[in-house]
Amino acid sequence: MGHLTLITGGARSGKSTFGEKLAMDAGGKVAYIATAVAFDDGMKDRIKHHRERRPAEWTTIERYRDFDKLPEDPGFLDADTVLLDCLTVLITNQMMDTGMDFDTVPAETVWDIEADIARDIMTALDLMADKRVIIVANEVGLGLVPAYRMGSFFRDIAGRINQRVAERADDFYFCVSGVPMKVK
């Protein structure tokens, strides 16, 4: 009954715009899960532009963690389509919430953090199993090797979680310069 679509690509590759188009084309009620936190002026501006682009009738759910509480969010249960934008920002926010010093944290602790994040995301996918789900995520493995330890941990966690979501996805797109290419 449900259908999962994953959209990845680099920064400003058209992922969100394509995800929004898929959600609009699907028809029915749409719930948009916004995972960003407005921590600086640049992010505030990005959030503002995303809000302005979304149709007014879509329900916006601001959530990047605790997906077991998703059914309590207004508009979630009656949504036909759920668009989660962005998985990579969700991962960043959850990593930052740990308060860990990633320059000194033991690797075993990072594995535990990744397991917690993955569990939360898989809970979300399970709760949305009867809906059309569109997930936007950055492809972080095509760039330079991060020069700092947290960047390496982040890239590895995001890459492995993207793989897990892609494995469950019915459709998988890779966006380049605004052009979505169907991978799966």
Outline of this structure?
The chain has 184 residues and is of the alpha/beta class. The protein is built from five helices and seven strands; from the N terminus they run βαβαββααβαββ.
Strand content: 15-25%
Output the CATH topology.
Answer: Rossmann fold
Structural class: alpha/beta
Instruction: Please estimate the helix content.
Output: 40-55%
Examine the secondary-structure arrangement and name the CATH architecture. 3-Layer(aba) Sandwich
By CATH reckoning, the class would read: Alpha Beta
Total count of domains: 1
Q: Give the biggest beta sheet.
A: 7 strands, mixed
Number of strands: 7
Order of helices and strands: EHEHEEHHEHEE
Rg to the nearest angstrom? Answer: 16 Å
Average of the residue pLDDT scores: 93
**N-C termini distance:** 18 Å
CATH superfamily: P-loop containing nucleotide triphosphate hydrolases
Indicate the low-confidence ranges by residue numbers.
none
Shape, principal axes of CA atoms: globular
Strand order within the widest beta sheet: 3-2-4-5-1-6-7
Count the DSSP helices: 5
